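Hey, weird one. I pasted the 2-oxoglutarate (2OG) and Fe(II)-dependent oxygenase superfamily protein sequence into the form twice and got a warning about non-standard characters only the second time. First submission, copied straight from the form history:
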Amino acid sequence: MLVNHGVPETLMKAVLDDCNEFFNLPMEEKMEFATKDIWKPIRFGTGVDIKVEKFFFWRDFLKVFAHPEFHFLSKPQGFSEIAQEYCKRCHEVSMELLKGISESLGFEESYIEKAMNLKSGFQLFAANLYPPCPQPELAMGIPAHTDHGLLTLLIENGIGGLQIQHNGKWFHVNPLPNSFLVNTADHLEILSNGRYKSIMHRAVVNNQSTRISIAIPNGPSLDTMVSPAPELVDNESRPAAYIPMKYKDYMDLQLDGKPCLERVRLPIA
Ligand SMILES: O=C(O)CCC(=O)C(=O)O
Ligand SMILES: [Fe+2]
């Protein structure tokens, strides 16, 4: 949980309000952006009422590519400007955190920025809507997963629902007002050769209030080949635990819905 991050409270509130307005648009207007193609820069999806195995998935989402090129929608009015400013501030916060993380791994502060080509890093604006669900015990907002990228900055509208897994158990996360929840993600685990772990998380739903969350994953540039940092690999004592893969190709792995990290993790002795 990150506080004192310098991103104005008014901006965080404005971007959540605009997401609420977007989700309140008539379904036909949102369905213009409905696609299963993950490479479309603006993508809307609705999962409410879709049953997968024994659960309903109770979530609508909007995903927009925000960096290196900023795409956005023209509705609701003013959303694009607010979201652009918000994404820029999140990019700055994640760059700062990654400087500290570089140092914690024994590198100079710009190591991750350079190695992952963050000047043209891929950033996504991902808003989630979880309407009240009449039978929350039969539904899941978003199933257990880890995020791609390096760091995800998450905020919500004061209604809880996020859970993270620790030692095989699920824990509710109750963020402080105006804080960011920062999740370490798959490519930080790969780059650090497992020193940082990608956080397994999910979102549950409730039968009272509508929850909105905004996740901003910040990743390498799409054509960066990501592998464990050579300085953190020692063939005798600490062999590379992940196979190298371009970030873009890793994103394509998501298409079949299986956990991607398992596909690049090597069984090490
Ligand atoms: O809504 C949440 O708290 C989690 C959202 C999430 O994990 C995601 O969008 O990747
Ligand atoms: Fe996530």
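That's the output from the first submission. The warning seems to come from a hidden character in my clipboard, not from the data itself. Residues 135 and 207 are 7 Å apart (CA to CA).
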